[in-house]
């Protein structure tokens, strides 16, 4: 009765997009509503353009956005949201202020009303802002001790130089200096509907959900600000930058390689080349440095997209004593993918993974909301899913070979390593030029 | 606000070899989740083999009868899917999420390793290295590593089973042998000691046939007798302090024993709700008091079970509170304030609307988790394993909503300082 043969896959049906609607309101706010009624909830994502906003003020604004309105305290806001099963929070990246949340489907109107109050009538009360400011400073102090954060900060600085993306976390002292009046001014200047995108996904009728958003957010008006940033600079390869972390039991290896945006004709080929190299578990790099050599636990590579440019980032935490060998294997695998064509079967495996991941990503309300919001921030819509799916299916082995040669060459890599410099500098210097940055 | 519920269908069956199966079809997205859960976890590790349950989880990915090393990963990902496994105090889970057309492949892969992993010394040593790196990433190389989930149990508990470090010491990991692995598999990885769940886009009748085809000839082996890990409650506070050389700021955690999560679920559930009343959002008791009013804490969290798996843990377990403090923060003061707020809740009860809004938000969290196929497959597999009641997943929002103010007050009243295990983190890194 048992079979020892790996069962065949039943081919996937065509990607079926959920029912959706879109409208740009008079204020300039774009609302995208998507129906997935599987659970009686609604996911909400609001992006407001925030490029070029002053970093410390913008970061504190995102932390203090829900501290009070003309008619509600921070506790009122939280309690009233909870009453309909709702919750909202805010975050910041170099391009956007992002409000995320969810609610019981029956609470959508109320959640939108509360959100409108926060957007239109913010108070930034001195006491609450002071609390959030201290908390933010404390959080930054802890982040400054997290190796993942430290390595990321060093890499951003190395990649972006003078571009605003170079620093994405403010200094504690800069945060301490921010006053509530400055938050009110920044809010008045930048928290505007023009250019903003609201995504609602869940157990909704899309047209009615847009009507509800129009009604609740109708009073949110005002011109947007041009937050457009200059394109990111090209990577400038150079010596490995070694950042000292005395006594570290692991080294944090980070590399940046050139990449292209989702809409570039090379993108699907680059995505597959990255998967074959290191972009998923069954990749050469992970099989090598984890499953063969045991140097590391969770190595990963990914293509990061910002509005002003895309970068491929390679990341691994490796034991201090194998820091040099880990870099060697990383150079080796990059060199191999950049100079030799991938195997037929490993390419097909990566392709099926990429195609399957698209389907898994759109199988939940939260997944759809995240995709729709991220795509919208690059001017794309959900129809990118079937389009990209077709592009992935069509990429040839030659195109993947060419993309790997163009984007994954170790000679183009920018490398940063955080670790115990006295221990790792020697082995690293045997492999490449090293500059210490202390 | 009326609390909604899900109506995911639940089909249960047991194969002749003792494997319990739960099927929960839902065709809202063309994906399936497959979970296999074994009734063994950290608490069952032998002395001298701390971390072995987790190491063994890694070994289950290293090959089996028809699968070479790396094959499992490649077959799942090459089908467009993702995989993982995790080791808890009382169970170990293995799972995949895939496009619907890959269901039979996932069943084949799980059945193959249920018959037994194929282990080599080389793969064992490789995975010991990988696990050490996992421990370095998650515990040794970061501030607050293992706080409080690895650091508080030895304060609260006295027996090896409940108190020891589930990630394991490097010495114990290095001592692990292939014979240990074989013995562990033979003892605990019996199909009578496991559940299989499939959730998502599939046909029930056809899938039953597939499951019979792939799992039907897994040798019938009964479940081993499960030990009782009960130990007496504390009668006086236990407190420990340690210095974290990477942490820039102080922190504190406190834990109290709670009723048996399975045998006495009705008495246990109010504690789950109490944790949210105290710590869910800016309108919760402890966030309002400690973070906003007193500013004696930067963050505060509350939950049941050391791994936050409140509906998937067995007795004994704990109600946990943890707080990160500002520079110079006073853990003793934070603990006193917590006592005050618990007293206030126990004697003064809740404010109008306070409980119902907390329950509404809890419903959202519960429903949201079930939207993902694995958010149904995994908890249902554990609920079947531990309670024989996978349908409890559908009932939880309503059961949470039925908890009364009196039950919350009674639960709060039981969290006395004398029953408390407390752990303070002293910052060892300059700011």
TrEMBL record, chain A:
Q: Could you identify this protein by its name?
A: Peptidase M16
Q: Which GO terms describe its molecular function?
A: metal ion binding
Locate the Peptidase M16 N-terminal domain: which residues?
A: 59-169
The organism of origin for this protein: Mangrovihabitans endophyticus
Report the SUPFAM superfamilies cross-referenced here: LuxS/MPP-like metallohydrolase
Question: Which positions fall inside the Peptidase M16 C-terminal domain?
Answer: 180-352
Q: Which InterPro entries does the entry link to?
A: Metalloenz_LuxS/M16, MPP/UQCRC_Complex, Pept_M16_N, Peptidase_M16_C
Tell me the superkingdom of the source.
Answer: Bacteria
Enumerate the Pfam families for this protein.
Answer: Peptidase_M16, Peptidase_M16_C
From TrEMBL, chain B:
Annotated Gene Ontology MF terms? metal ion binding; metallopeptidase activity
Which SUPFAM superfamilies does the annotation name?
LuxS/MPP-like metallohydrolase (SSF63411)
- Residue limits of the Peptidase M16 N-terminal domain? 20-138
Record's keyword terms, sorted: Hydrolase, Metalloprotease, Protease, Zinc
GO terms classed as biological process: proteolysis
InterPro entries per the record?
Metalloenz_LuxS/M16, Pept_M16_N, Peptidase_M16, Peptidase_M16_C
Q: Which family does it belong to?
A: Belongs to the peptidase M16 family.
Protein name as annotated: Peptidase M16
Which species is this UniProt entry from? Mangrovihabitans endophyticus
Q: What is the lineage of its organism?
A: Bacteria, Bacillati, Actinomycetota, Actinomycetes, Micromonosporales
